[in-house]
């Protein structure tokens, strides 16, 4: 399997694993900082176990290789998570995920400025088509809009794009270990400003599975993607969550999106599939300017 195909496959798999995250956050419906306290701690523990299994005794060396770039990834992950969870509570799942989908454009700008990457024509075309799908969803009127929540979602998208661009700047280094201190910082801030939520046993079990198993696995896979594909393409694949997240909420919480939202989601999904197939066939790396 070529490196580019590996990057596309790992990132796509990671997005499929993380897609129920918005559903869990909407279902828990607790204080954001209290959720973040345990979400961050469970994420750090789960990722530590996965990376220990992967690196064995070489884990300290893997940490050291991340260097200052890893510190930047950790901070971007931490504050992106803080903004994302707060935005989810203020603006709701649909608005937050839609604004979060702007990360490909932000990643494109960052990769152009920092890394001098030129974008492939198929990537530019996919971004334009996806923007059309996003626009269809955004213009659909829905109650519960929040300006502060939308702004937090935009900040979260920017920080996420920064995380992937930093990881892309060091393609020979796995930046997954850097997410552990980032998650611990999330947990620390959550305990300081939030505390422990009063959840039922079933809610605790779901939180443990999502934050302790699925999130670490998903972010480890997603963090590996920029080693072989551009930050923009990683961000573009994040649009999968924009489509799948509302579908999970619709299916299990009975929050049905409108026909216009479904049409926009279909356009986005088709564009992503076409872009991934073209990228898989080309097997080429992004061109440097």
TrEMBL record:
<feature type="domain" description="EamA">
    <location>
        <begin position="6"/>
        <end position="138"/>
    </location>
</feature>
<dbReference type="InterPro" id="IPR000620">
    <property type="entry name" value="EamA_dom"/>
</dbReference>
<feature type="transmembrane region" description="Helical">
    <location>
        <begin position="201"/>
        <end position="222"/>
    </location>
</feature>
<feature type="transmembrane region" description="Helical">
    <location>
        <begin position="178"/>
        <end position="195"/>
    </location>
</feature>
<feature type="transmembrane region" description="Helical">
    <location>
        <begin position="67"/>
        <end position="87"/>
    </location>
</feature>
<keyword id="KW-1133">Transmembrane helix</keyword>
<dbReference type="GO" id="GO:0016020">
    <property type="term" value="C:membrane"/>
</dbReference>
<keyword id="KW-0472">Membrane</keyword>
<feature type="transmembrane region" description="Helical">
    <location>
        <begin position="119"/>
        <end position="139"/>
    </location>
</feature>
<feature type="transmembrane region" description="Helical">
    <location>
        <begin position="93"/>
        <end position="112"/>
    </location>
</feature>
<feature type="domain" description="EamA">
    <location>
        <begin position="148"/>
        <end position="273"/>
    </location>
</feature>
<feature type="transmembrane region" description="Helical">
    <location>
        <begin position="259"/>
        <end position="280"/>
    </location>
</feature>
<protein>
    <recommendedName>
        <fullName>EamA domain-containing protein</fullName>
    </recommendedName>
</protein>
<keyword id="KW-0812">Transmembrane</keyword>
<feature type="transmembrane region" description="Helical">
    <location>
        <begin position="36"/>
        <end position="55"/>
    </location>
</feature>
<dbReference type="InterPro" id="IPR037185">
    <property type="entry name" value="EmrE-like"/>
</dbReference>
<feature type="transmembrane region" description="Helical">
    <location>
        <begin position="234"/>
        <end position="253"/>
    </location>
</feature>
<feature type="transmembrane region" description="Helical">
    <location>
        <begin position="145"/>
        <end position="166"/>
    </location>
</feature>
<dbReference type="Pfam" id="PF00892">
    <property type="entry name" value="EamA"/>
</dbReference>
């Amino acid at each position: 399997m070529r490196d580019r195909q590996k990057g596309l496959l790992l990132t796509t798999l990671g997005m499929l694993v993380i897609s129920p995250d918005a559903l869990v956050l909407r279902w828990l419906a607790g204080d954001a900082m209290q959720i973040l306290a345990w979400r961050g701690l469970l994420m750090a523990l789960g990722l530590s176990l996965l990376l220990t299994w992967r690196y064995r005794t070489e884990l300290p060396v893997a940490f050291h290789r991340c260097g200052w770039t890893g510190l930047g990834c950790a901070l971007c992950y931490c504050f992106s998570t803080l903004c994302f969870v707060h935005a989810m509570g203020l603006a709701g799942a649909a608005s937050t995920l839609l604004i979060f989908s702007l990360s490909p454009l932000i990643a494109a700008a960052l990769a152009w400025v920092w890394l001098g990457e030129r974008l492939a024509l198929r990537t530019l075309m996919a971004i334009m088509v996806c923007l059309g799908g996003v626009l269809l969803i955004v213009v659909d009127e829905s109650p519960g809009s929040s300006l502060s929540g939308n702004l937090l979602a935009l900040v979260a998208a920017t920080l996420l794009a920064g995380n992937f661009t930093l990881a892309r700047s060091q393609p020979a280094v796995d930046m997954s270990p850097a997410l552990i201190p980032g998650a611990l910082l999330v947990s620390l801030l959550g305990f300081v400003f939030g505390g422990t939520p009063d959840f039922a046993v079933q809610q605790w079990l779901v939180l443990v599975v999502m934050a302790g198993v699925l999130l670490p696995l998903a972010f480890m896979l997603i963090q590996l993607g920029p080693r072989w594909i551009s930050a923009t393409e990683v961000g573009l694949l994040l649009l999968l969550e924009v489509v799948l997240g509302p579908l999970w909420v619709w299916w299990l919480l009975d929050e049905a999106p409108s026909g216009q939202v479904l049409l926009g989601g279909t356009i986005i999904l088709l564009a992503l599939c076409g872009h991934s197939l073209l990228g898989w066939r080309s097997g080429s790396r992004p061109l440097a300017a």
